[in-house]
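Q: I'm writing a short methods note and want an example of a predicted protein-small molecule complex. Could you take the sequence and the SMILES for S-adenosylmethionine and return the bound structure as tokens? Please keep the output block clean; save any remarks for afterwards.
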Amino acid sequence: MFQPATTTEPDRHAESRDIWNLNAHFWIEHFGAEGNDFHRVLVAPAAERLLALKGGEHVLEVSCGSGLFARRIIDLGAESVVAFDYSKVFVDEARKRNEGYEDKIEFLVLDATDEQAMVRELMPRSGKKGFDKALSNMAIMDISDITPLFRALRTLLNPGAQFIATLMHPAFNHPDSVRGVEQFDLPNGETVKRTYIKAHEYLGARPVKGIGIPGQAHAHWYFPRSLHDIFNIAFGAGFVVDGFEEAAWNREEGEEKNLTPSWKDMTKLPPVVAIRFRVL
Ligand SMILES: C[S@@+](CC[C@H](N)C(=O)[O-])C[C@H]1O[C@@H](n2cnc3c(N)ncnc32)[C@H](O)[C@@H]1O
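A: Understood, no commentary inside the block.
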């Protein structure tokens, strides 16, 4: 499902945005009004736990797609959300879906790799003390360079504020890792079936193209990074980590015999991590 990188860095960044614009309608259709099961079961619960909204917060959402989670943040009690994405098609769709939230959510087209533009556009919208929280769902591995984002967030967030990021687990859910099921017999005659991940590139992984939702017409760019790469970029920008979750599916007891190489059957291999960074 993946293609190795062939283009150069600036080409890849521009191509990546073009591909998100091309895929946006397909993604929105397949994501559904409430989010797909990946979102509902793994991503949103972890994001909400780490976000721990108390009510009244001013929140920044990075790479918001069609705005589903921005609306959820308001429903959870936040006062206001500024949400951005570099795909104009996604932002146009988010604005169309904003009925009832017009006074609470503002959607912008902005590039998370452009520190100057983020500070210029978001600083006047950050409130007197800066944003109280920031969040990004399932986008860190899609952003070609995350150093400008952490640097901008350091400027835009209120002292002590947190940035929560959910992303594909860099160790297990790499675009070119292989999922499988193996079966073997024990000396006592029992047959064991179990799922596994075969990974061959975690450290120093290169950008690759892959599919996020089966059936999407255009493979998009992934920019995989190890956890220590992500952490060190955040530490270098003045953040610490104060929350961390690894999310996997739960399966009903007794279904072991029908294992498939789907994430839903990989109850011990988490496809999603949720990290909470805090401004020092
Ligand atoms: C997998 S989608 C997730 C969308 C949304 N957060 C959700 O959970 O449905 C990844 C998103 O990252 C956005 N993205 C990728 N690179 C970006 C960048 N440099 N700046 C802003 N958004 C970016 C894409 O346009 C896309 O909307």
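A: Remarks, as requested: Residues 20, 63-65, 68-69, 85-87, 90, 111-113, 137-139, 142-143, 212 surround S-adenosylmethionine (CB under 6 Å). The chain has a mean pLDDT of 94.
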